[in-house]
Amino acid sequence: MDSVRMVTQWPAEHVAVAVVNADGTVLGGHGPQDRPFKLASVTKLLTAYAVLIAVEEGAVEWDDPAGPPDSTIRHLIAHASGLAFDSDMVQARPGERRIYSNTGFSVLADAVSKAAGMTFADYLTEAVFTPLGMRDSRLDGSAGAGAVSTCADLVRFAAELQAPRLIDPATLAEATGRAAFPGLDGVLPGFGRQRPNDWGLGFELRDGKDPHWTGRTSSPRTFGHFGQSGTFLWVDPAAGCACVALTDKPFGEWAAAAWPTFTDAVLAELRS
Protein backbone atom coordinates (compact mmCIF):
# COMPACT_ATOMS: atom_id res chain seq x y z
CA MET A 1 0.00 0.00 0.00
CA ASP A 2 1.42 3.36 -1.02
CA SER A 3 -0.53 5.25 1.64
CA VAL A 4 1.44 3.75 4.53
CA ARG A 5 4.55 5.59 3.34
CA MET A 6 2.91 8.85 4.40
CA VAL A 7 4.24 8.14 7.89
CA THR A 8 7.75 9.06 6.72
CA GLN A 9 6.53 12.67 6.99
CA TRP A 10 5.59 12.32 10.66
CA PRO A 11 7.92 14.10 13.14
CA ALA A 12 8.91 10.92 14.98
CA GLU A 13 12.26 9.17 15.10
CA HIS A 14 10.64 5.74 14.95
CA VAL A 15 7.28 4.86 13.36
CA ALA A 16 5.74 1.46 12.70
CA VAL A 17 2.37 1.06 11.00
CA ALA A 18 0.35 -1.81 9.58
CA VAL A 19 -3.02 -2.25 7.89
CA VAL A 20 -4.52 -5.66 8.54
CA ASN A 21 -7.66 -7.45 7.41
CA ALA A 22 -9.79 -9.82 9.44
CA ASP A 23 -7.79 -12.97 8.71
CA GLY A 24 -4.61 -11.32 9.97
CA THR A 25 -3.14 -10.65 6.54
CA VAL A 26 -1.07 -7.48 6.53
CA LEU A 27 -2.24 -5.43 3.58
CA GLY A 28 0.47 -2.83 4.02
CA GLY A 29 3.13 -1.88 6.51
CA HIS A 30 6.05 0.41 7.14
CA GLY A 31 8.73 0.69 9.78
CA PRO A 32 10.18 -1.67 12.40
CA GLN A 33 7.41 -4.18 13.05
CA ASP A 34 9.21 -5.86 15.97
CA ARG A 35 10.36 -2.72 17.78
CA PRO A 36 8.75 -2.28 21.23
CA PHE A 37 6.81 0.94 21.80
CA LYS A 38 5.06 2.34 24.86
CA LEU A 39 1.35 2.17 24.12
CA ALA A 40 0.02 4.67 26.66
CA SER A 41 -3.81 4.51 26.49
CA VAL A 42 -3.92 1.96 23.68
CA THR A 43 -3.27 -0.26 26.72
CA LYS A 44 -6.95 0.18 27.54
CA LEU A 45 -7.94 -1.95 24.54
CA LEU A 46 -5.86 -4.85 25.86
CA THR A 47 -7.18 -4.41 29.38
CA ALA A 48 -10.76 -4.21 28.14
CA TYR A 49 -10.32 -7.43 26.18
CA ALA A 50 -9.03 -9.21 29.27
CA VAL A 51 -12.09 -7.96 31.17
CA LEU A 52 -14.40 -9.30 28.44
CA ILE A 53 -12.71 -12.68 28.87
CA ALA A 54 -13.06 -12.45 32.66
CA VAL A 55 -16.80 -11.78 32.26
CA GLU A 56 -17.22 -14.75 29.94
CA GLU A 57 -15.30 -16.95 32.36
CA GLY A 58 -17.56 -15.84 35.20
CA ALA A 59 -14.73 -14.33 37.25
CA VAL A 60 -16.60 -11.00 37.32
CA GLU A 61 -20.00 -9.79 36.18
CA TRP A 62 -20.93 -6.47 34.63
CA ASP A 63 -23.14 -5.47 37.54
CA ASP A 64 -20.60 -6.32 40.25
CA PRO A 65 -20.02 -3.29 42.51
CA ALA A 66 -16.61 -1.69 41.91
CA GLY A 67 -15.28 1.81 42.40
CA PRO A 68 -17.36 4.63 43.93
CA PRO A 69 -20.74 3.98 45.58
CA ASP A 70 -23.29 2.63 43.08
CA SER A 71 -20.58 2.10 40.45
CA THR A 72 -20.11 -1.27 38.74
CA ILE A 73 -17.64 -3.06 36.49
CA ARG A 74 -19.69 -1.80 33.54
CA HIS A 75 -19.43 1.83 34.71
CA LEU A 76 -15.66 1.59 35.13
CA ILE A 77 -14.91 0.09 31.72
CA ALA A 78 -17.14 2.68 29.99
CA HIS A 79 -15.68 5.73 31.79
CA ALA A 80 -19.02 6.35 33.48
CA SER A 81 -18.12 5.67 37.13
CA GLY A 82 -17.64 9.34 38.01
CA LEU A 83 -13.96 8.88 38.95
CA ALA A 84 -11.58 11.66 37.96
CA PHE A 85 -9.00 11.28 35.20
CA ASP A 86 -6.00 10.46 37.38
CA SER A 87 -7.08 10.54 41.02
CA ASP A 88 -9.54 8.93 43.43
CA MET A 89 -11.73 12.04 43.40
CA VAL A 90 -15.37 11.37 42.51
CA GLN A 91 -16.62 14.08 40.15
CA ALA A 92 -20.09 12.77 39.29
CA ARG A 93 -22.57 10.08 40.18
CA PRO A 94 -22.16 6.85 38.19
CA GLY A 95 -23.90 7.03 34.84
CA GLU A 96 -24.23 10.83 34.75
CA ARG A 97 -21.13 11.92 32.79
CA ARG A 98 -18.44 10.41 30.57
CA ILE A 99 -15.30 11.22 32.55
CA TYR A 100 -12.28 9.59 30.92
CA SER A 101 -10.44 7.93 33.80
CA ASN A 102 -7.12 6.14 34.09
CA THR A 103 -7.97 5.59 37.73
CA GLY A 104 -11.15 3.80 36.71
CA PHE A 105 -9.15 1.29 34.70
CA SER A 106 -6.81 0.67 37.63
CA VAL A 107 -9.81 -0.05 39.86
CA LEU A 108 -11.23 -2.27 37.13
CA ALA A 109 -8.00 -4.25 36.89
CA ASP A 110 -7.85 -4.63 40.67
CA ALA A 111 -11.34 -6.15 40.64
CA VAL A 112 -10.34 -8.71 38.00
CA SER A 113 -7.07 -9.43 39.80
CA LYS A 114 -8.88 -10.13 43.07
CA ALA A 115 -11.43 -12.37 41.39
CA ALA A 116 -8.81 -14.29 39.39
CA GLY A 117 -6.37 -14.67 42.26
CA MET A 118 -3.37 -13.31 40.34
CA THR A 119 -1.88 -10.00 39.33
CA PHE A 120 -3.66 -8.30 36.48
CA ALA A 121 -0.44 -8.32 34.45
CA ASP A 122 -0.35 -12.11 34.75
CA TYR A 123 -4.03 -12.39 33.89
CA LEU A 124 -3.56 -10.22 30.81
CA THR A 125 -0.65 -12.37 29.71
CA GLU A 126 -2.51 -15.65 30.24
CA ALA A 127 -5.84 -14.46 28.82
CA VAL A 128 -4.71 -12.36 25.85
CA PHE A 129 -1.00 -12.24 25.07
CA THR A 130 -0.13 -15.94 25.21
CA PRO A 131 -3.11 -17.35 23.24
CA LEU A 132 -2.68 -14.69 20.54
CA GLY A 133 1.07 -15.25 20.28
CA MET A 134 1.86 -11.70 21.41
CA ARG A 135 5.31 -12.68 22.69
CA ASP A 136 6.75 -9.17 22.83
CA SER A 137 3.89 -7.57 24.77
CA ARG A 138 3.79 -6.91 28.48
CA LEU A 139 2.10 -4.74 31.09
CA ASP A 140 4.82 -2.73 32.82
CA GLY A 141 2.62 -0.24 34.64
CA SER A 142 -1.01 0.74 35.04
CA ALA A 143 -3.83 -1.15 33.36
CA GLY A 144 -4.86 2.11 31.71
CA ALA A 145 -1.58 3.21 30.19
CA GLY A 146 1.32 0.91 31.05
CA ALA A 147 1.64 -1.66 28.25
CA VAL A 148 4.55 -2.12 25.86
CA SER A 149 4.06 -3.89 22.55
CA THR A 150 5.13 -4.11 18.92
CA CYS A 151 3.31 -3.49 15.68
CA ALA A 152 3.60 -7.19 14.83
CA ASP A 153 1.93 -8.17 18.10
CA LEU A 154 -0.84 -5.61 17.71
CA VAL A 155 -1.51 -6.92 14.19
CA ARG A 156 -2.44 -10.20 15.89
CA PHE A 157 -4.68 -8.34 18.32
CA ALA A 158 -6.26 -6.32 15.50
CA ALA A 159 -7.11 -9.57 13.71
CA GLU A 160 -8.72 -10.85 16.92
CA LEU A 161 -10.83 -7.70 17.10
CA GLN A 162 -12.19 -8.45 13.64
CA ALA A 163 -12.64 -12.21 13.93
CA PRO A 164 -12.63 -13.14 17.63
CA ARG A 165 -11.38 -16.53 18.75
CA LEU A 166 -10.96 -15.89 22.47
CA ILE A 167 -14.48 -14.62 23.14
CA ASP A 168 -17.95 -15.06 21.68
CA PRO A 169 -18.47 -12.70 18.72
CA ALA A 170 -21.65 -11.49 20.42
CA THR A 171 -19.58 -10.31 23.39
CA LEU A 172 -17.30 -8.31 21.14
CA ALA A 173 -20.31 -6.91 19.27
CA GLU A 174 -21.77 -5.68 22.56
CA ALA A 175 -18.46 -4.05 23.51
CA THR A 176 -17.84 -2.32 20.19
CA GLY A 177 -21.17 -2.05 18.41
CA ARG A 178 -23.19 0.10 20.75
CA ALA A 179 -22.63 2.67 23.45
CA ALA A 180 -22.61 1.77 27.10
CA PHE A 181 -24.68 4.38 28.96
CA PRO A 182 -25.48 6.11 25.64
CA GLY A 183 -25.87 9.84 25.28
CA LEU A 184 -23.39 10.94 27.98
CA ASP A 185 -21.44 14.10 27.20
CA GLY A 186 -17.76 14.32 28.00
CA VAL A 187 -14.30 15.36 26.89
CA LEU A 188 -12.41 13.24 24.39
CA PRO A 189 -8.77 13.89 25.40
CA GLY A 190 -7.02 15.99 22.79
CA PHE A 191 -10.23 16.68 20.84
CA GLY A 192 -12.45 18.57 23.26
CA ARG A 193 -16.01 18.14 24.46
CA GLN A 194 -18.20 15.75 22.52
CA ARG A 195 -21.99 15.72 22.68
CA PRO A 196 -22.39 12.83 23.08
CA ASN A 197 -19.07 11.21 23.91
CA ASP A 198 -20.24 7.65 23.37
CA TRP A 199 -18.03 4.78 24.48
CA GLY A 200 -18.37 1.03 24.31
CA LEU A 201 -17.11 -1.46 26.88
CA GLY A 202 -13.55 -0.17 26.90
CA PHE A 203 -13.54 0.79 23.22
CA GLU A 204 -13.96 4.36 22.03
CA LEU A 205 -16.68 4.59 19.38
CA ARG A 206 -16.26 6.85 16.35
CA ASP A 207 -19.96 7.58 15.82
CA GLY A 208 -20.32 11.16 14.57
CA LYS A 209 -17.65 12.78 16.72
CA ASP A 210 -16.00 15.85 15.28
CA PRO A 211 -13.12 16.54 15.57
CA HIS A 212 -11.69 13.06 15.90
CA TRP A 213 -8.39 11.20 15.58
CA THR A 214 -9.69 8.80 12.90
CA GLY A 215 -10.56 9.96 9.37
CA ARG A 216 -13.44 11.99 8.04
CA THR A 217 -14.28 9.00 5.86
CA SER A 218 -14.08 6.50 8.73
CA SER A 219 -17.42 4.80 9.19
CA PRO A 220 -19.45 5.60 12.32
CA ARG A 221 -18.93 1.94 13.31
CA THR A 222 -15.18 2.47 13.72
CA PHE A 223 -13.83 1.72 17.19
CA GLY A 224 -10.45 1.73 18.89
CA HIS A 225 -8.21 4.00 20.97
CA PHE A 226 -5.24 6.30 20.76
CA GLY A 227 -2.44 6.93 23.23
CA GLN A 228 -0.58 10.01 24.40
CA SER A 229 2.70 8.30 23.48
CA GLY A 230 1.76 8.80 19.81
CA THR A 231 -0.01 5.51 19.15
CA PHE A 232 -3.36 4.33 17.85
CA LEU A 233 -5.34 1.28 16.82
CA TRP A 234 -8.63 1.50 14.97
CA VAL A 235 -10.95 -1.08 13.46
CA ASP A 236 -13.39 -0.05 10.74
CA PRO A 237 -15.89 -2.89 10.22
CA ALA A 238 -17.39 -1.20 7.18
CA ALA A 239 -13.97 -1.13 5.48
CA GLY A 240 -13.12 -4.64 6.66
CA CYS A 241 -9.76 -3.65 8.06
CA ALA A 242 -7.84 -2.36 11.06
CA CYS A 243 -4.83 -0.09 11.38
CA VAL A 244 -2.04 0.02 13.96
CA ALA A 245 0.31 2.99 14.29
CA LEU A 246 3.09 3.23 16.87
CA THR A 247 5.51 6.13 17.28
CA ASP A 248 7.93 7.57 19.82
CA LYS A 249 6.61 11.11 19.34
CA PRO A 250 4.07 12.15 22.00
CA PHE A 251 0.59 13.04 20.81
CA GLY A 252 0.14 16.71 19.94
CA GLU A 253 -1.01 19.03 17.19
CA TRP A 254 1.06 17.06 14.69
CA ALA A 255 -0.95 13.90 15.39
CA ALA A 256 -4.33 15.63 15.42
CA ALA A 257 -3.54 16.89 11.92
CA ALA A 258 -1.68 13.89 10.48
CA TRP A 259 -3.67 10.91 11.73
CA PRO A 260 -7.05 11.72 10.10
CA THR A 261 -5.35 12.52 6.78
CA PHE A 262 -3.41 9.26 6.95
CA THR A 263 -6.54 7.26 7.80
CA ASP A 264 -8.50 8.80 4.93
CA ALA A 265 -5.66 7.93 2.54
CA VAL A 266 -5.58 4.32 3.75
CA LEU A 267 -9.34 3.96 3.37
CA ALA A 268 -9.29 5.55 -0.09
CA GLU A 269 -6.58 3.16 -1.26
CA LEU A 270 -8.54 0.18 0.04
CA ARG A 271 -11.62 1.34 -1.87
CA SER A 272 -9.74 1.88 -5.13
Mean pLDDT across residues: 97
Helical content stands at: 25-40%
Hey, roughly how much beta strand do the residues contain? 15-25%
Secondary structure class reads alpha+beta
Quaternary class: single chain
Q: Summarize the main sheet.
A: 6 strands, antiparallel
The number of distinct helices, counting runs of at least 4 residues, comes to 7
Major sheet: order of its strands? 2-1-11-10-9-8
H and E order: EEEHHHHEEHHEEEEEEH
Could you walk me through the main structural features you see in this protein, from its secondary elements to its overall organization?
- It is a single chain.
- The chain is an alpha+beta fold.
- The chain has helices at 43-57, 73-77, 102-116, 120-132, 151-162, 169-177, 253-271, and strands at residues 15-21, 26-30, 37-38, 138-139, 147-149, 186-188, 192-194, 204-205, 223-227, 231-236, 241-247.
- A hairpin with a 3-residue loop joins strand 6 and strand 7.
- Helix 1 crosses helix 4.
- It starts with 14 loop residues before the first strand and ends with a helix.
Task: Output the keywords.
single chain; 272 residues; alpha+beta; 6-stranded antiparallel β-sheet; 3-stranded antiparallel β-sheet; 7 helices; 17% strand; globular
